[in-house]
Specification:
Largest sheet of chain C: none
Structural class of chain B: alpha/beta
Shape of chain B: globular
CATH superfamily of chain B: P-loop containing nucleotide triphosphate hydrolases
Number of helices of chain C: 11
Strand content of chain B: 25-35%
Radius of gyration of chain C: 22 Å
Chains: A alpha/beta, B alpha/beta, C mainly alpha
Helix content of chain C: over 70%
CATH architecture of chain B: 3-Layer(aba) Sandwich
Structural class of chain C: mainly alpha
Number of domains of chain B: 1
Shape of chain C: elongated
Largest sheet of chain B: 6 strands, mixed
Number of helices of chain B: 9
Number of strands of chain B: 10
Oligomer: heterotrimer
Order of helices and strands of chain B: EEEHEEHEHHHEHEHEEHH
Largest interface: A-B, 33 and 36 residues
Strand order of the largest sheet of chain B: 6-7-8-3-9-10
Helix content of chain B: 25-40%
Number of strands of chain C: 0
Radius of gyration of chain B: 18 Å
CATH topology of chain B: Rossmann fold
Chain lengths: 325, 251, 263
């Protein structure tokens, strides 16, 4: 297993107070596997993603406990130099806004070359990278600056820079959210292609279920700082095992929905400083009962590789209240 | 009955030297939800602002219930604005950061003087309840509200003049999926209850499909296809429409 | 708030209080002449000493604070009114209105302000009102540009389009929505402007064409002090220090506000 996150807990600064926003997350990602991490704004997914190579600035947050095992080494115990050998080299990131991640005053060539290990004959390797991300047009254009490229091309350049060092794990945080739908499709195809070619492990973080359902092998759904459901994509799509997941799936808009009201989840996500007792989804859950407030449910296996934090899920499925799709 | 008729509308921005809106013509009929779909930069938001004269068109005409909006007096335009409202995309940018929620709605009454002093507060509370909020939101500043709540305030503001026609410019694009569903529900319910007509703009085909009767597809300032949602989704004619549908990750 | 800013705020507050409560703080009538005690050094009965007419310097300084602050505030108030109004109109309406106002600003900026003030005062009489008005009328340009810049970007925000959509008129949009949201950088300008105005008034009074005796102003006290330099060091020290500290205070406060805004 390439990456094993165990009981990760992270505090983050919010309104001048430190609040626990990742409250015990476990996640495993293997080579050649794309794990999708779904969650809505403020659920802690970006923080969790950043923490994989300790990218959270100290004055904003800290990892209070847990382990992040990368090829059996705990990242949290590495010294700065060892960490630098992993960041950008063995574990690379691609973020949402390519234009903010690219340095506007350096050409694309210069920025890719910066990440190269082989300092001699960089041109050949750069051309190789550009080709593998579909940027053949730029090969030879040594003076191409980021602002001359479209959003999609910029993101391809970012992905190129991320794979230069032939990383083992690629972490992508909302990489297509800022892009047009047609470009999004192309970037997702590119990511899949690279995953297969390079046997990459991928952590794909997004709030958009449709994208994650399309690209991931396994899916983890996060709510209020914890993973509330996890499993293989096929299982999650056809038989989701948590009321929140069901609510999210019911919220996906489509033609089939025409003018029929959505079975929307009511209310809004809780503040980390005001989490309710017991199950955190209780206030918004349509299947809630008093027992749900007793204690926060554990993430337990509910069927072949699928895990859920809902204590009622088996009951609701067997009595037909929740049907498979 | 034809509510809005747009003919050969054109707008060029000098800075970009391209036609943001290039000879666009269409009609919106009473009681329908007409969708406008296109990717960023296709001109759909510009079109929305032109239709309400928030931006001035270079050429073309805009008729609302027979009234020529480009050739009426300032005062008449102001009165017409009561019937034609708009909801914006970004709930963070569409509210004055210094204005409390109640005041945002009350300002409409101040401007149009259609509701008198004491009644203003009551009507404001009523509107807040209509959009799923309540009296407790009267004194909240936008910074104290979530994206969904801000958007509801924006909807309440649009409803304050009792409009007939509302342009929804990407009203749910900045919201989380669960909140998006809530707001779409609200918009659908309001449309049915008050017999509103919507011009619903979005880049998201799924959203368009879930709420619209007809849809128009826009690319580079031009309308390249239109028809009922069923037809356009199941039988797209234009290659761009086909590409959009293929990329849309529709379930 | 960082310590320097707090210090600046303290100084500003201190002098404001002195100015407001002048009658209660001053031990003597500032105009009270006492021939027997001409130019006495600071002592128990006159903590800042006396001037060439035997008047208590401390009392004169306290009343002088009133003048300096009043001129500072009102001059900047006038500059603010002109600058904010013109800048907002230029920014909002754009096109030829903007062009005309900007050229006007450019023309005003061509004049070396202080000499312009000197020239005008020379033509009119040096009364306090004239001074306030002329300083105000020549220092509004910076604020106008700041407000114009803010409004140029603010007016493209959706909430302004929303105001237009609900039928708000231009005046309402400019006065209630644009200007209040654009004031932040102007606050810095105003604070630093007060310091500037105080300096200009002191300079004019020092040159003899500002506040006229017997009304006490730090500038004209300083001027007197220059005339009797050897015989009365206190006459230059105290007004000089007062001007220095006040201006320092406003500058620190202004910089502090600017830093807070940059965050």
């Amino acid at each position: 297993m390439l990456l094993q996150i165990k009981n990760l807990k992270i505090n983050y600064k919010s309104d001048n107070r430190m609040v626990e926003v990742v409250r015990g997350v476990d996640l495993d990602i293997d080579r050649g596997e794309c794990v999708g991490l779904i969650g809505e704004s403020g659920c802690g997914k970006t923080t969790a993603g950043l923490s994989v190579t300790k990218l959270i600035p100290e004055r904003k947050g800290n990892i209070s406990s847990g382990e992040i095992l990368f090829a059996s080494n705990d990242i949290l115990k590495l010294n700065p130099e060892e960490l630098r050998n992993i960041r950008g080299k063995k574990i690379s990131y691609v973020f949402q806004e390519p234009f903010s991640s690219l340095n506007p005053v350096f050409t694309i060539y210069e920025q890719i070359r910066e990440s190269l290990e082989e300092k001699d004959n960089p041109g050949r390797r750069i051309a190789e990278i550009l080709k593998s991300v579909g940027l053949e047009k730029i090969i030879g254009r040594k003076n191409a600056y980021p602002h001359e490229l479209s959003g999609g091309m910029q993101q391809r350049a970012m992905i190129g820079m991320a794979i230069v060092s032939r990383p083992d794990l690629l972490v992508l945080d909302e990489p297509t959210t800022a892009l047009d739908v047609t470009v999004q499709r192309q970037i997702l195809d590119l990511i899949m292609e690279l995953k297969n070619k390079m046997n990459l492990a991928i952590l794909f973080i997004s709030h958009d279920l449709r994208i994650v359902f399309n690209i991931a092998d396994k899916i983890a759904i996060m709510y209020a700082g914890k993973i509330i459901e996890f499993g293989p994509k096929e299982k999650i799509v056809s038989s989701p095992a948590h009321p929140y997941t069901i609510g999210l799936i019911d919220s996906i808009p489509s033609l089939e929905h025409r003018k029929k009201p959505f079975n929307a989840i009511s209310g809004k996500a809780p503040l980390f400083s005001e989490l309710p007792q017991g199950c955190k989804f209780y206030p918004r859950c349509r299947f809630r009962i008093d027992k749900c407030t007793e204690k926060e449910p554990e993430l337990r296996d509910v069927s072949g590789g699928q895990a859920s934090r809902c204590i009622r899920i088996e009951e609701l499925k067997s009595n037909g209240t929740i049907k498979n799709r | 009955m034809e509510l809005l008729k747009i003919d050969n509308l054109r707008k060029t921005f000098k800075k970009h030297n391209t036609r943001a809106v290039d000879d666009v013509s269409f009609s919106v009929f009473k009681g329908e939800v007409l969708g406008l779909v296109g990717e960023s930069g296709c001109g759909k938001s510009t079109l929305a602002k032109l239709a309400l004269r928030l931006l001035e068109a270079d050429k073309g005409s805009i008729f609302y219930k027979g009234r020529d909006l480009l050739n009426i007096s300032h005062g008449d335009m102001r009165k017409t604005r009561k019937d034609l409202q708009i909801i914006f995309q970004d709930p963070y940018a569409s509210l004055d950061p210094r204005m409390k929620a109640g005041k945002v709605i009350e300002e409409v009454y101040h401007i149009h003087k259609n509701v008198s002093g004491r009644e203003r507060k009551n009507k404001t509370i009523e509107l807040l309840e209509t959009v799923g909020l309540g009296e407790t939101y009267l004194n909240r500043l936008p910074s104290e509200l979530s994206g969904g709540e801000r958007q509801r305030i924006g909807i309440a503001r649009a409803l304050a003049t009792d409009p007939e026609f509302i342009i929804c410019d990407e009203p749910v694009s900045s919201l989380d999926i669960s909140v998006q569903a809530q707001i779409l529900n609200l918009l659908i319910e309001l449309q049915k209850r008050k017999n509103l007509t919507y011009l619903f703009i979005s880049h998201d085909l799924g959203v368009i499909g879930s709420i619209c009767d007809r849809v128009m597809v826009m690319q580079s300032g031009k309308l390249i296809e239109s028809g009922s949602c069923e037809n356009v989704f199941k039988n797209p004619q234009h290659p761009y429409t086909k590409t959009l549908l293929e990329s849309a990750l529709l379930p | 708030m960082n310590k320097l800013t707090l210090f600046g705020l303290g100084i500003v507050g201190f002098f404001i209080i002195i100015a407001i409560f002048a009658p209660m703080i001053a031990p003597y009538n500032p105009g009270q002449i006492d021939i027997e005690n001409i130019l006495t050094a600071p002592s128990g009965s006159h903590i800042f000493g006396t001037d060439s007419l035997g008047r208590d310097l401390f009392s004169r300084m306290v009343y002088g604070a009133r003048i300096s602050l009043m001129v500072g505030f009102i001059a900047v108030g006038i500059a603010g009114l002109i600058g904010i109004a013109l800048g907002a109109i230029a920014g909002y309406y754009g096109k030829w209105v903007d062009a005309v106002i900007m050229r006007f600003i450019d023309i005003m900026l061509c004049f070396p302000t202080f000499f312009l003030i000197l020239a005008v005062i020379a033509l009119l009489e040096p009364s306090i009102i004239n001074i306030m008005v002329i300083i105000g009328a020549t220092s509004w340009m910076g604020m106008a540009r700041l407000i114009r810049a803010e409004i140029l970007s603010l007016k493209k925000r959706d909430f302004i389009y929303a105001e237009k959509a609900i039928g708000a008129g231009d005046l309402r949009i400019i006065a209630r929505h644009l200007i209040p949201n654009a004031m932040a950088p102007v606050l810095v300008s105003i604070t630093l402007g007060i310091a500037g105005a105080i300096l200009v008034e002191s300079s004019l009074s020092f040159l003899g064409i500002g506040v006229q005796p017997p009304t006490p102003s730090w500038g004209n006290i300083l001027s007197e002090g220059k005339a009797v330099m050897g015989a009365g060091w206190w006459m230059m020290l105290f007004p000089g220090l007062a001007i220095f500290i006040t201006v320092l205070g406003y500058n620190l406060l202004g910089e502090g506000i600017r830093e807070k805004l940059l965050k």
